[in-house]
Amino acid sequence: MSWLSLLILIPFATALAVVATPDTKWYARRWIALFGTGVVLALSLVMSVSYMQAVLDRGGDPSVLTISQLEFEQSIPWFKSMGIEYHVGVDGIAMAMIVLTAIIIFTGVLASWEVKDRSREFYAFLLVLVTGVFGVFISVDLFLFFLFYEVAVLPMYLLIGVWGTGRKEYSAMKLTLMLMVGSALVLVGMLALYHAAGSQTFDLNKLAMVDYPRDLQRWVFPCVFVGFGVLGALFPFHTWSPDGHASAPTAVSMLHAGVLMKLGGYGVLRVAVYLMPEGAKQWALFFLVLTTINIVYGAYAAIRQTDLKYFTAYSSVSHCGFVLFGLCSLNLMGFKGAVIQMFSHGIMTGLFFGLIGMVYGRSKTRDLTKMGGLSKRIPWLATSFYIAGLASLGLPGLSGFVAESTVFLGGFFGNRWVDATTMRVCTLLATSSIVVTAVYVLRGLSRVFQGPLTKPEFKQLRDATIPEKLCTGILVATLAVVGMYPPVLIDLIEHAILPIANRF
After folding, report:
1. What is the pLDDT of residues 13-33, one digit of tens each?
2. Domain ranges for the chain
3. Peptide bond preceding 213: is omega within 30 degrees of 0, i.e. cis?
4. Membrane-spanning residues where (predicted)?
């Protein structure tokens, strides 16, 4: 059995084990979930080391590598008449996303340590969701890719609608409907590519060898880009994201922002950009402008928020815009920056939402205007919050600086299909969002943690528990490691990005 199949089977088997736990053993469910996700985390790290060793052993000129040179590959015929296979394999991009997912789900379980209300269903749906996410990242067959994509999206409705807060039913329904519309667009584009390739295969490697007509790419590319872009919070289809974040429970917010939204950028890169380079060239300017609006609008909208979750949600809209902006640059540096940003933002926003849940559980409020002086009572959580905020505004030494500077360089270098002046104006506008980010992050954190305690009951607050310290410590350490030694991530993804950039 392939190691990649274990990434699907272990979370699913853990979900079944959680469901089978007797009602009187509710506390055992969290240990089962933690053990299962811990095994997946260890497996993903071992696989990443093995992948890097395989790349080094392969040697040769990396500029001539193709995406078909995958590791841990497994192919089993499924529906032969339609050319559908259970075909899995990973390159460096997928490997980085697998490690990201493993870190977020493990820390998400730690952040949900005190969940007791219907904990059986909560952990089971959480693990089914992550099973779908792993399935997307390992799939080489486009049909299998879409199948796991839907598995990853659908549990969000129940996780928010049942365990959420505030307008949870409205938020869950809005999220589901908008993502289903995006899925419909992706399905249309996927079937169009399948039909144009002779209705013989869904294999991404084989589809990449097809020379699709420019007229076909002209309308299929925006369908696929927008379809995946809805999940990636592409302006103006981002409105589901802040409401979904605000209503979701802590672990779900961590997975939602940390991993699920990355499926949008990953799908754009793997399907739209890679399979349809001519369509990407034709639509580059249009989507470059949209993603610039994404970045600037999200930053200014975050300034206006007084709810901690909405504050972070609009920040995520802005930072996810960097991913799509990098992809629209259509050059090696931009692609590299987009993937680094997916990883960096996943860790950073997972830390943000985990901390918000921990602070809310103690203070019983997310209103910035009603909080203050909390660093005196919860110094561990306050310090972790500041580190996440500094990563968000791109402080050197943390992963946010590496990701954002690489995206901006990609935009500044430009390409042959967008006017250089226009490209640089968009890049400068996007870069200006860093100043806005510094304003809302530092002002928001100072309101929450500095000054005198605003409420007498805040004197009774206790600092992070051991599971919470482990959760935040892992995420902070990841931000620091990637920030201070970027090659640990760049070396992993570079060989996989080159073949995509070479198509342009």
Report:
1. 999 988 888 876 767 888 898
2. 3-58+65-502
3. no
4. 6-24, 31-52, 92-110, 122-140, 146-165, 177-197, 219-238, 259-277, 283-303, 310-332, 338-360, 380-402, 422-442
